[in-house]
Amino acid sequence: MTSGSFAGMAASSPATGSVTAVPRAAARSQGSATQLPAEHPLVSGLTADSPLLTQYRGGRNTAGEITRPHRRPVWFMRQAGRSLPEYRALREGTTMLDSCLDPKLASEITLQPVRRHDVDAAIFFSDIVIPLRLAGIDVEIQPGVGPVLGTPVRTRADVEALPTLDDAAFAPITEAIGRIVAELGSTPLIGFAGAPFTLAAYMVEGRPSRDHLGPRTMMHADPETWKALASWAAEVSGRFMRAQLMAGASAAQLFDSWAGSLGREDYARHVQAHSAAAFSHVTGLDGTTPEGHRVTAPLIHFGTGTGEILDLMKEAGADVVGVDYRLNLAEATRRVGPETPLQGNIDPALLRADWPVLEAHVREVIAAGSGAAGHVLNLGHGVPPETDPEVLTRVVSLIHEIGNED
Ligand code: 1CP
Q1: Ligand 1 atom 45, closest CA
Q2: What's the pTM value of the predicted model, to 2 decimals?
Q3: Which listed residue, of 15, 17, 146, 333, carries a Cα 20 to 30 Å from 132's Cα?
Q4: Which of 92, 83, 166, 81 is nearest to 124 (CA)?
Q5: Residues 103-118: what's their mean pLDDT?
Q6: Is any ligand 1 atom within 6 A of the Cβ of residue 319?
Q7: What domains are there in the chain, each with its CATH number?
Q8: One-letter-per-residue 3-state SS of the chain
Q9: Beta carbon of 75 within 6 Å of any ligand 1 atom
Q10: What is the C-alpha radius of gyration for the chain, rounded to an integer number of angstroms?
Q11: pLDDT tens digits for 236-294?
Q12: How far is the CA of 96 from the centre of ligand 1 (A)?
């Protein structure tokens, strides 16, 4: 892989933001296979008609017929993590990234919230900076801070010196996912990666930042270097998602957590095509169920503060748009069209409110999402670490009950 491997990528049109012909990456990972393995839970049929995937498909089963899942699906971003005492106990003595790369630990942590809350999906316990670590970059997650790089990536020479990522490095990921899907049965596992802007933001700043000035300056002041960096990030994130899907994940989410700091024009000109390039590693991956139906893994695109660019995020190649807590879902549907399934958007702040307040809010979110072809309940961002896990369990059973009564 070279940092210039997307040199021929067509620019997006600033006026509409539409992506014109983003070529598939030149160097395809894991060969050029576009077939999910026969034993994959989506292909064997185990997860294919789960409530989650049915909603992600716009309320259709694998045969393409409109169907009503037996319950309303819900999962939570950051459902694995510090809100769970069993997570804190397991993590003791192991750094964050080391625990992500220990297949036994990563699999157990992924499964904990599924057992506890009865959510409709597992999200792989990993981090968006794992591909950097696997490529040999000096990156650590500092407790209470987040990702910190030993050496930030700020110049053309820094970008040209970025290492290549060998697919063999994904072995701990593949092993962890094998263990997870063996336990999950018909509950789908969601894989994920960081979108190029969000990943590159950490690489340029070297640590979390509020306004992401570094990458936003770079895309204007030194667009060639920005393009090379975002292309590198798209490639490693795309291959990370692909490795997870090939190993058994049934859906994948691209996190552009910080894309909300971009204006619409900057997103369209400097970011959207790179996110499309990340997605291009996993679009077209498919298989055929024993009943003869073609199945693909739904792709979700999420960011915070992204109300003004939701349509562009969908156009980047997503099947499903994740909405943060700032935008009403009915308005989100107006912006992306009723055919687009949505995910979201319970306000994490309300997890600490009295139950009647929280219950009313959950019902409002369900009503606001009812105009979309499909709706998967989630939070508008991650579970805050101080959340009482019993509240999450109660929210899940409320959502499942509401599915059954009307
Ligand atoms: O349960 C799950 O959701 C699975 C695990 C998961 C995911 C999906 C983790 C574990 N990280 C992520 C993705 C991730 N990592 C994102 C996108 C999602 C989001 O917006 O929250 C981002 C921005 C990161 C970067 C990161 N890693 C941060 C944010 C720092 C900042 O800029 O404010 C932090 C705090 C981490 C560490 C981390 N990753 C995951 C966990 C459980 C933790 C906390 C580690 C701990 O236990 O102390």
Answers
A1: 96
A2: 0.92
A3: 17
A4: 81
A5: 98
A6: no
A7: 51-322 (3.20.20.210)
A8: CCCCCCCCCCCCCCCCCCCCCCCCCCCCCCCCCCECCCCCCCCCCCCCCCHHHHHHCCCECCCCCECCCCCCCECCCCCCCCCCHHHHHHHCCCCHHHHHCCHHHHHHHHHHHHHHHCCCCEECCCCCCHHHHHCCCCEEEECCCEEEECCCCCCHHHHHCCCCCCHHHHHHHHHHHHHHHHHHCCCCEEEEEECHHHHHHHHHHCCCCCCCHHHHHHHHHCHHHHHHHHHHHHHHHHHHHHHHHHHCCCEEEEECCCHHHCCHHHHHHHHHHHHHHHHHCCCCCEEECCCCCEEECCEEEECCCCHHHHHHHHHCCCCEEECCCCCCHHHHHHHHCCCCCEEEEECHHHHHCCHHHHHHHHHHHHHHHCCCCCEEEEECCCCCCCCCHHHHHHHHHHHHHHHHHC
A9: no
A10: 20
A11: 999 999 999 999 999 999 999 999 999 999 999 999 999 999 999 999 899 999 999 99
A12: 10
Ligand 1 midpoint to CA 151 (Å): 20
Ligand 1 in reach of 310 Cβ (< 6 A): no
Is the pLDDT reported for residue 377 higher than 70?
A: yes
The closest alpha carbon to 234, from 15, 14, 19, 16, belongs to 19
Which of 76, 101, 127, 140 to mutate to test ligand 1, by most ligand atoms within 8 A of the CB atom?
A: 127
Q: Whose CA is nearest to atom 42 of ligand 1?
A: 81
Q: What is the pLDDT of residues 17-28, one digit of tens each?
A: 333 333 333 334
Contacts of 242 (CB under 8 A, 6+ apart): 29, 30, 281, 282, 285
- State how beta strands 375-379 and 342-346 pair: parallel
Q: Is 80 annotated as a binding residue?
A: yes
Question: Exposure pattern of 58-72 as b/e (b: 16+ CB <10 Å)?
Answer: bbbbbeeeeeebebb
Distance CA 300, CA 382 (A): 15
256 marked among binding-site residues: no
CA quadruple 277, 278, 281, 283: dihedral positive or negative? negative
What tokens does 22 get? 């983003």
Nearest CA to ligand 1 atom 30: 146
